[in-house]
Amino acid sequence: MSVTEVTRNGLHIAIIGAGIGGLTAAAALRANGTDVVVYEKAHELREVGAGVVIASNGLRALDEAGLGERVRAVGTPIERSVMGTWHGESVPMPPAWPSVSADRPATSLPVHRGELQQALLSALPAGTVHLGRPCHDVVETSDGVRIVFADGSEEHADVVVGADGIHSVVQRVVAGPVELSSEGIMAYRGLIPVERLDHTVDLSCMQMWIGPGRTFLIYPVSQGRLLNIVAFTASTLDAEESWTAPGDVRELAAEFADWAQPIPGIIDAIPQTFRWGLYDRKPLHRWSTDRITLLGDAAHPMTPHLGQGANMSIEDAVVLANVLAGASAADVPQRLALYESLRRDRTTRVQQNARQSGGVYRSVDLTPQQQAAQLTKILADNWIPDYDAAAAAGEALAGIDRR
Ligand code: FAD
Q: Which of 7, 52, 69, 316 has its CA 20 to 30 A from that of 350?
């Protein structure tokens, strides 16, 4: 067993999982004076062939954690977002859709997932992230948490954060086994070097086309060197939930063969595609014990139709770091309960609205105008992008201090 290091606030926190949520939490906790270590099952943090959009709520939270500039450095600013039908007609934009306008400056930032991961990693001192350490179990003890790895080795921490994704081991310990729920939708994903597109696609914006049972989304990543595509189609296949399950470009092309250009042309240019099924899960009855908590997909996996899964994991990470700042070991149970109470309603609402949005996008009954109107309703008052996670944590902590 390793020796717990002496820390600035006295807490030694172990995070299970070095995804977007785990790395953000590590950097944010460290910045708040906590000793932190991350255990990741993969042997290397390698680039994953997909993009992700950091929305303004996520960017705001990253700024609070001092990570915004690193992420902006690898982001690809877009000038606007547009939506169209599968016939090529334009559709009115739901106001809070990732957009850019004079009163809403460039706050949605597409990034390559691998580049985002490296940007977050660069904020951590060498030795913080331990690769090739699959967690097998976590056991709460009288003085902390024992972490048991697949090879039988063990480590000890004052607090464990399960940021181990949709198939979380830590979640099962905290809340028992809970079934995932398939949306019956397959996502195809791919990255296209822009030179293969022959200047046929506007790379300055995010574009989405909607049609009965299908949607097709594109945006640039890697400073405009790559075009990210995500295509959603109905599926009865229980597809593996994975970033790397190979997909068949010919099957993808067949799904969109009767759609207006540029979609078939874009699919023609895709060198390879990955696919996975989309799942979420009913909200857990609890996220935390006295010394173990969850964040990101481990706590609240959601379908990607609001582009908020990673953003919610970033918000979680920043709230968790803020509520644990200055906490003693004795404060931890109360602070973890506060973290959960701050995050539960918001993430549940996003989860539920993401499911609902998927249904609206792929509706066979609604006209494009009705679809846009329903999405506008779901996104009313900019309740997702305008949220300030760190401010919410600050207010809650001030409430505790006043008591
Ligand atoms: P993960 O990214 O899954 O990371 C978990 C980490 O834990 C991994 O590194 C894994 O290897 C590790 N791990 C797992 N088990 C163990 C173990 N036992 N021991 C040690 N390590 C372990 N979100 C957005 O905000 N914007 C988007 O535009 C967006 N687009 C998406 C498009 C699609 C098609 C899909 C499917 C998702 C999309 N998402 C998007 C959602 C987003 O990808 C996830 O919500 C986000 O990756 C969750 O981050 P996380 O850190 O919680 O989990």
A: 69
| CATH classification (class only), 3-180+281-402 | alpha beta
Question: Where is pLDDT greater, at 201 or 28?
Answer: 28
Helices (H), 284-331: 309-324
288 backbone φψ class: left, alpha, beta (φ>0; ψ -120 to 50): beta
pLDDT tens for 361-379 read: 888 899 878 888 898 889 8
Kind plus residue range of the DSSP H or E element containing 294: strand 292-294
Model pLDDT for residues 287-308, shown as the tens digit of each residue: 999 999 999 999 999 999 999 9
**Which residues contact ligand 1 via a Cβ below 6 A?**
16-22, 39-42, 52-53, 134-135, 163-165, 169, 187, 189, 230, 278, 296-298, 304, 307-311, 313
Give the span between the Cα atoms of 264 and 258, in whole angstroms.
Answer: 8
Q: Catalytic positions, please?
A: 219
Domain ranges of the chain: 3-180+281-402
Radius of gyration of the chain from its Cα atoms, rounded to whole angstroms: 21
Which residues face 139 on adjacent strands?
A: 146
Cα–Cα distance measured from residue 228 to residue 17, given in angstroms and rounded to the nearest whole number: 25
Residue 5 above 60 pLDDT?
A: no
